[in-house]
Specification:
By secondary structure, the protein is α/β, with parallel strands linked by helices. The chain contains 11 helices and 13 strands. The strands form 4 sheets. A 6-stranded mixed β-sheet has the order 5-4-3-6-7-12, sandwiched between helices. A 3-stranded antiparallel β-sheet has the order 1-2-13. The chain crosses the membrane at residues 6-30, 51-74, 310-328.
Length: 346
């Protein structure tokens, strides 16, 4: 297992192709200038030991030194020990609505992006808990199983979009049913589900599914994203608006926040409805809710004792820079004697 402390320094690697291009342009320029002012044979007599190979080698060594310096600044760390650690927390499942209605821009930047921001901020404020992510539209699908790897969870979360499910609609019931399979520990006292949605449902039978979840000890905290006034559903291509979604009667579809549906789910499962308009208020409330719950101890394996590796790359960079100083642009005597290219002496 490895970690990258400062990955931003990988941008230094872009200097390498720039150096190579400048070097090639310089070679072409030198050739053209030499042709104008001096004869080729005369140039060989004036500088008989000049080596193009050495010039290329110097640039290669310089590029390798820059690459090593970049990796040294990034400072990769390697986990040298795998340990089983004890953690205390709550199993949390996020169910994210990825239906087309989540593209409505009645809340900035749009409902889906706002939902991702909310979930990301909640995960950032967790400590010993485990998280899982479900996506749903016309059907539900598992995105991230229950895990303690928050970085991986956020990575998969960012990749979620409205094209992940071919069947459109908003089947909240399927999302709740799937969430019940995520909790693998029967003795876990607190099971939490955050249902992030605009509240539109086309699956029906929500009350029954919510009751089943409540019987299994699952508390659902719906987070409503959107406004009661609602807005049209924009269909875009590469960020450019193409048209607004219309129904079978060619009337523009207006999607509104279904607060009543979400509040019903919260009430049935002994949860609480949260208004997703204010990210900070939602995160603070979630922290308070989770802070008041009993934590369950569980085991988790993780890499520990991460050791810095920058020194190896730094040493390599310094060695290459020193080596570059000693490389001269004239031919090496003993290589010239080998006459590897069968050049005829004149």
């Amino acid at each position: 297992m490895y970690q990258l402390e400062q990955p931003i320094y990988f941008y230094i690697l872009f200097a390498i192709p720039v150096i190579v291009v400048v070097f090639l342009l310089l070679l072409v320029w030198k050739k053209s200038v030499q042709k104008k002012f001096i004869d080729k044979e005369l140039l060989k007599k004036l500088s008989p030991n000049r080596s193009i190979f050495k010039s290329v080698l110097k640039i290669l060594v310089l590029c390798l030194a820059i690459a090593c310096m970049s990796f040294a600044l990034v400072n990769p760390k390697i986990g040298t020990k795998l340990e089983t650690v004890k953690r205390e927390g709550v199993d949390i499942v996020f169910a994210l609505d990825v239906s087309k209605s989540m593209l409505v821009e009645d809340i900035a930047p749009n409902r889906l992006d706002k939902s991702k921001q909310l979930i990301t901020q909640i995960i950032n404020n967790l400590s010993g808990d485990r998280v899982g992510i479900i996506g749903y539209a016309g059907s539900a699908f598992p995105q991230v199983p229950i895990t303690t790897d928050f970085a991986a969870a956020k990575l998969f979360l960012n990749g979620m979009n409205t094209n992940m499910v071919s069947s459109q609609g908003t089947a909240i019931t399927e999302a709740i049913e799937m969430a019940q399979t995520f909790y693998d520990d029967e003795s876990r006292t607190n099971r939490v589900m955050f249902l992030v949605s605009d509240g539109e449902d086309h699956g029906g039978n929500i009350a029954k599914i919510a009751e089943e979840a409540a019987e299994k000890g699952i508390r659902i905290y719906p987070i409503g994203v959107g406004t009661v006034e609602g807005g049209p559903i924009p269909i875009k291509n590469n960020g450019v608006l193409q048209y607004y979604l219309r129904d079978k009667n060619n009337e523009q579809v207006i999607s509104r926040l279904g607060e009543e549906t979400l509040k019903e789910i919260a009430k049935t499962t002994n949860g609480e409805y949260l208004d997703g308009d204010n990210t900070k208020a939602v995160v603070d409330r979630v922290k308070a809710i989770l802070g008041g719950m009993d934590k369950k101890e569980f085991e988790a394996k993780q890499f520990t004792d991460f050791k810095d590796q920058f020194q190896w790359f730094l040493a390599g960079a310094l060695f290459l820079l020193v080596l570059d100083v000693f490389f001269l642009e004239r031919q090496t005597a003993w290589l010239k004697k080998l006459n590897l290219f069968n050049e005829k002496e004149k």
